[in-house]
UniProtKB/TrEMBL annotation:
<dbReference type="InterPro" id="IPR027417">
    <property type="entry name" value="P-loop_NTPase"/>
</dbReference>
<feature type="domain" description="Helicase ATP-binding">
    <location>
        <begin position="89"/>
        <end position="247"/>
    </location>
</feature>
<feature type="binding site">
    <location>
        <position position="494"/>
    </location>
    <ligand>
        <name>ATP</name>
    </ligand>
</feature>
<feature type="binding site">
    <location>
        <position position="87"/>
    </location>
    <ligand>
        <name>ATP</name>
    </ligand>
</feature>
<dbReference type="InterPro" id="IPR004027">
    <property type="entry name" value="SEC_C_motif"/>
</dbReference>
<dbReference type="InterPro" id="IPR014001">
    <property type="entry name" value="Helicase_ATP-bd"/>
</dbReference>
<feature type="compositionally biased region" description="Basic and acidic residues">
    <location>
        <begin position="778"/>
        <end position="792"/>
    </location>
</feature>
<feature type="compositionally biased region" description="Basic and acidic residues">
    <location>
        <begin position="808"/>
        <end position="824"/>
    </location>
</feature>
<keyword id="KW-0653">Protein transport</keyword>
<feature type="compositionally biased region" description="Basic residues">
    <location>
        <begin position="834"/>
        <end position="843"/>
    </location>
</feature>
<dbReference type="GO" id="GO:0065002">
    <property type="term" value="P:intracellular protein transmembrane transport"/>
</dbReference>
<dbReference type="Pfam" id="PF02810">
    <property type="entry name" value="SEC-C"/>
</dbReference>
<dbReference type="InterPro" id="IPR014018">
    <property type="entry name" value="SecA_motor_DEAD"/>
</dbReference>
<dbReference type="GO" id="GO:0046872">
    <property type="term" value="F:metal ion binding"/>
</dbReference>
<keyword id="KW-0479">Metal-binding</keyword>
<dbReference type="Pfam" id="PF01043">
    <property type="entry name" value="SecA_PP_bind"/>
</dbReference>
<dbReference type="GO" id="GO:0008564">
    <property type="term" value="F:protein-exporting ATPase activity"/>
</dbReference>
Amino acid sequence: MLGLIVKKVFGSKNERFLKQLRPTIAAINSLESELLQQPDTYFPTRIAELRQEVENGASLDSVLPETFALVREAGRRVFSMRHYDVQLVGGCVLHKGMIAEMKTGEGKTLVATLPVVLNALTGKGVHVITVNDYLAQRDAEWMGRLYGFLGLTTGVIVHGLTDEERKAAYGADITYGTNNEFGFDYLRDNMKFYKEQLVQRAPNFAIVDEVDSILIDEARTPLIISGASEDSTALYAQVNNIIPSLKAEQHFTLDEKARAASLTDEGVARCEALLKLDNLYDPQNISYQHHILQALKAHHIFRNDVDYIVKDGQVVIVDEFTGRLMPGRRFSDGLHQALEAKEGVKVESENQTLASITFQNYFRMYDKLSGMTGTADTEAVEFGQIYGLEVISIPTNQPMVRKDFPDSIYRTRPEKFNAIVQEIIELHKKGQPVLVGTISIETSELISGMLKKARVPHNVLNAKHHEQEAQIVAEAGQKGHVTIATNMAGRGTDIVLGEGVRELGGLHILGTERHESRRIDNQLRGRAGRQGDPGSSRFFLSLEDDLMRLFGSDRISGIMEKLGMQEGEPIVNSMVSKAIENAQKRVEGHNFEIRKTLLDYDNVMNQQREVIYSLRRDSMMEQDLEPLVQEFLDDIIDDLYTEWEANKHPDSESKNAMAAQLNELFNLAGVMEMPPVPDRETVRGAVVAKLEKLKTDAPEMYAHILRYFLLEELDRCWKEHLLNMDHLRDGIGLRGYGQRDPKQEYKRDGFALFQSMLTRMRENIFKALTRLRIQRAEEREEEERLREEFRHKEARKNVSYSGSTSKQPEKALPTRREEPKVGRNDPCPCGSGKKYKKCCGAA
């Protein structure tokens, strides 16, 4: 109650914040008349001067009014588009590192130019992140004209660029690209060997367009760079063949909410019989269990034309939030291979993780982060908790006049689709344009087929038919047009109304199903009613829709039964609509928990990742790596001797073990006699002497040698560690049965694995460095010449003395054991007829 009174008297927090910006907006407006008189050449000159002021210590806030005024006038001259005052407000919100919630059609792309130019004055680079390559390319070219007018450079990062092209794009003042490209470039940079190969600069300021899509929807899937493992793919095909023999409920059960499958006792017995196994739960058969469960999910939970499509002999993922294809992305944990086996295409090798990061942890690396979208308020809590981002709702330039009709709810899907088609036919006859929103390719093609039978001309926009996307969306507001689209039409491109359409009621949005996220529904609705245009929207639902079936309470069915619904008769009831919204809230909460759990686990990995990537950067950037190598040496010796000295009365066996360990690590056998075990300083001195000899033998290559072994061993151990952490994560949930917190157990065991990995990495570096022998090219050539001369000599002697015992050949020159290119049991290349190991190979 007190909160309501405060809000009534002082206004909401959002209103108070907007009120604080009024003096800033007034200051920007006061400069407009002066700038109207300036020539075009004034603008890049003044921007360069402001940049110098910032470099000399001026704050960005102090130059904000003039910079925004310069950008506004540049927009008027370049595009004939003048920023509205509400767009200036949006620009201020973005500059302050907040999320600007702006309705569709309010010009978010133009709003971004204001904080982009202001923050580009620092010279540290600004990233504008979009949801797809098309929008990144479009916005970079479009807004790049304005930035060029102001003397700033623009780059764009899209799929397929070379490292040189990427480096140039990141070096520009402003860089456009997708979240995937920025994230993967970060991971790839942390797999490079030389600093000259790095493409990205340190993350400074980012504006995320459609911030809810990228920071919320995409955050359920981490970015992973993987390489093919050596595991065979034959088991996928074998298991796939037995799945049709398993019956639901009898042999397996499905949990569609969790998208999981499990075998019944009868199912276990059936699988053991079909696969000829004695015990499916025997540890050696663990891979069979995993493959069976993934194959069940592939056949009974994941659907073609919904979760994926088959294109050009490949299984391609369909993004559930945007409806777009995601080429190059694969389901993890063997699921993608199970789908390939199901669809009869080539089963690719399983992949091993080489590098990974969540979007949450990637974007939290930026010094300042902001975002804009039409729908953020429903996830304001998550933005605050995960990213520390506050959501500010920006008023519209023109009042919103769109009519949002209540949902029409039917008992069955066929009844619903018949009603949808009938509605489309009536609106088409009237001439009012219709945008039909679907949540899957399957539904869009079903409705398209029904409209073809009804002879209603229409366009289909989904992941299978996306080549003409911009043109189809641009025409969707023309008189009489019917457009069927998956969620991909909900982002990035405004639908402009054609002539005479306003009088007919504007664009009508027809939703065929509620998405599990209210934001996706609001985005679809937001395609109509832009900039004060008329428009309308209505959703058609059925009790058989996935959302209603899985998450809708029985209460909805009970209400509809009491109302005595007849076949084909819809119900429009506020209680039912409220129950549906509650179902969506439950799903959103469930998905938030998934993202939060993913982040909790990745936070453990993130701490480790930061240590490894920091060490990698030091190894790449530092000219002199000797201090780091000396530090590693001290750590190894301290760890060894601390444990050794703890044993007050070592026996001969422990002395021998310590001596063997020292020899294995530092190759000391030819340097000193052991046992007895030498003291720390003696061992340290012997290892340093070996490194000094290495430095003397190859002074110009020594730094490269250290860098190579450091990075090579670091990458190899990190890759093994990622695999170990994956295995730990897979089984950590079982700790809950022992009344232990899986997350705390994962943190504790993960830290132990990490410490072990660091020790192993340091030790392996010295095993390699102390055994390395430098051989100059001329020495090797001389050795090869002597060896070849010796072989010819031996061959001649074997011919001369065959069958004779009166004179023995001369003693052979010693050869290196690792040199031969023939097997030890192969015939000797000298021509003696003996096996190599008993002839030249015995020397």
